[in-house]
Write a structure and sequence with these properties.
heterodimer; A: mainly alpha; MetI-like fold; globular; B: Rossmann fold; OB fold (Dihydrolipoamide Acetyltransferase, E2P); five-stranded antiparallel sheet; 33% strand; disordered N terminus
């Protein structure tokens, strides 16, 4: 049961944080590079899941999914998680973009790089720490998300926290403690890997690499 | 300088000497270019011709539009009106990556995730040259800027001067039609700056690459340029050789921006056609009359005199002004004297005297009589 929850959790986290990464990075680029009407409003909407209670978001998605007649499959869980973790990806990528010297891109262009090659050879490689940190935050949050997940998951799609919750309500045994330890170990491992390969300070945007 | 190093750039634009005069010899042409940011015109109807192979400096205080002009030539911004041509081809709306322009930035903007060789070879990779060709040209370029052996370093492992060289090599290796340099030396310390300037000039002349150089440092502009465009408030105030700019400034702004200058209250004595005579104390000096349009004989004019054009009066010399030494500043080869004199409109009068004389004779508090060491200067009507 917990194993199914773990598996569901990985599926949802993998999809949700990856989709959030692509969507969030695209919005971050748009917010950083372009001036358009309602820019502030768009930013507020994108960051709003930070202030709206997860409870409300979960309930909202549940009602929406019901009205659309969507089966309570992975789709609605993933969509819900994407919305919840998007602000973190957005912030992370946005800060990296702000720290990116625009002259690097101008230099690349002057050397004959058309826009898409500037993006792939200069902008994206330099954004890697921001992208990784965004994905990492998103993954950790999504994997641990409980409140909204409680609403949008079904028996078949229960993520780990929801599965644990249901388990505790019926049984009392030490497997809870064991699973919690596994939780901590997995999260810590991810952070340690990020630190080893990228430098945690850089990933968390604590220092500004120049 | 090795032979292969020269070969690295041999296809660059022909040297100016091999070109006939006329259209052919113009590398960059700006025609009535205007660029606005909001309501402010960063560039206001600017026209400029840069000759092939010349080193043209855009000199001016910050906000004068020099960097905007550079960005327009580089293709990083589009003008609101006017036309830009490079090598006779209209490029006004051609994007930067198609312009074949080399540029170095104030902070060098080296790609931090690439090593030196990858940085220098970037433009060649974008041109999809063969690997062997890229390797050869990168090696030649690194030899030219004397950085062979540092191919594998990352930019952050290099000193400021080395980063500067890499940036220059990266821009030159693509054999650009025009080289743009944006305040290239401002981040270097004084000694390094001087030697890099000499080296840049040497490389620029050797390759014959047309260069537009942006700086706010007037001494840098004077020492490096073939011609200088002095800019202020989005316009070119004066275009000329360093000597013309220094000795024949067209207005007060140019005169005070380029080089140290004393502004002295003098009297217009006579106008004879193109030449006017100005009296300062007992001294007389000739000035061009064109900058004194409308001034009448006997009226007060502002005489602009360089520090080296003044000297302490010796017996028998016409005294231009009397004053008291307020301070002296030891400069090694010479001593700067700051003199309080009633004629001075620009604070104190600055003059330069030889070291021994300055140290022994002109201590603070000493009375001094000042004479003119030249018989030509420049004067403007009072502001």
């Amino acid at each position: 049961m917990a194993l199914a929850g773990f598996r569901n959790g990985l599926i949802v986290t993998g999809w949700a944080s990856s989709i959030a990464l692509v969507v969030g990075a695209a919005f971050a680029l748009a917010l950083d590079r372009y001036d358009f009407r309602f820019k502030r409003a768009l930013e507020a909407v994108l960051l709003s899941p930070l202030v709206v209670p997860h409870f409300t978001v979960g309930l909202g998605f549940l009602i929406l999914a019901a009205q659309l007649g969507m089966a309570r499959g992975y789709g609605v869980v993933v969509a819900c998680h994407v919305v919840l973790v998007l602000p973190f990806v957005l912030r992370s990528v946005y800060i990296s973009l702000r720290n990116l010297d625009p002259r690097l891109e101008l230099a690349a262009a002057s050397l004959g790089a058309p826009p898409h090659r500037v993006l792939t050879t200069v902008t994206l490689p330099l954004l890697v720490p921001g992208l990784v940190s965004g994905w990492l935050f998103a993954a950790i949050l999504s994997f641990n998300e409980f409140t909204a997940s409680l609403f949008v998951t079904a028996q078949r799609t229960q993520t780990l926290p929801v599965a644990l919750y249901n388990y505790v309500r019926e049984y009392a045994d030490p497997s809870m403690a064991a699973i919690s330890v596994m939780y901590i170990v997995v999260t810590a491992t991810l952070l340690i890997l990020a630190n080893v390969f990228l430098g945690l300070a850089k990933v968390l945007n604590v220092e500004h690499p120049r | 300088m090795s032979i292969p190093a020269e070969d690295a750039f041999s296809a660059a634009a022909p040297t100016p000497a091999t070109r006939a005069n006329g259209e052919e010899s113009i590398a960059v042409q700006l025609d009535g270019v205007t660029k606005r940011f909001g309501k402010i015109a960063a560039l206001d109807d600017v026209s400029l011709l840069v000759r092939r192979g010349e080193l043209m400096t855009l000199l001016g205080p910050s906000g004068c539009g020099k960097t905007t002009l550079l960005n327009l030539v580089g293709g990083f911004a589009m003008p609101d009106s006017g036309e830009i041509a490079i090598d006779g081809q209209r490029v006004t709306d051609v994007p930067a990556y198609l312009r074949e322009i080399g540029i170095t930035f104030q902070n060098y903007a080296l790609f931090p995730h690439m090593n030196v060789a990858a940085n220098v070879g970037y433009g060649l990779r974008m041109r999809r040259l063969a690997k062997a060709e890229i390797a050869r040209r990168v090696a030649d370029a690194l030899a030219l800027i004397k950085l062979a052996g540092l191919e594998d370093r990352k930019p952050r492992q290099l000193s400021g001067g080395q980063q500067q060289r890499v940036a220059l090599a990266r821009a030159l290796v693509i054999r650009p039609k025009v080289l743009l340099l944006d305040e290239p030396f401002s981040a270097l310390d004084r000694n390094l700056r001087a030697s890099m300037q000499v080296e840049l000039k040497e490389i620029q002349r050797k390759l014959g690459v047309t260069t537009i150089f942006v700086t706010h440092d007037q001494s840098e502009a004077l020492s490096l340029s073939d011609r200088i465009a002095v800019m202020a408030e989005g316009r070119i105030r004066q275009l000329g050789t360093p000597d013309e700019i220094y000795r024949r400034p067209v207005d007060r702004f140019v005169a005070s921006f380029v080089g140290d200058v004393n502004v002295l209250r003098a009297r217009l004595e006579r106008i004879d056609g193109a030449i006017a005579t100005v009296a300062l104390g007992a001294a007389r000096v000739k000035v061009p009359s064109r900058t004194l349009q409308g001034a009448t004989t006997g009226s007060i004019v502002d005489l602009f005199v360089r520090p080296e054009e003044l000297r302490p009066a010796e017996h028998g010399m016409a005294v231009a002004a009397d004053g008291i030494v307020a301070a002296q500043s030891y400069q090694g080869g010479h001593v700067d004297l700051y003199v309080d004199a009633p004629e001075a409109l620009s604070g104190r009068v600055l003059l330069r005297v030889p070291r021994h004389e300055g140290m022994s004779l002109w201590r603070a508090g000493a009375r001094i009589s000042i004479a003119l060491a030249v018989d030509e200067a420049i004067a403007f009507r009072p502001a």
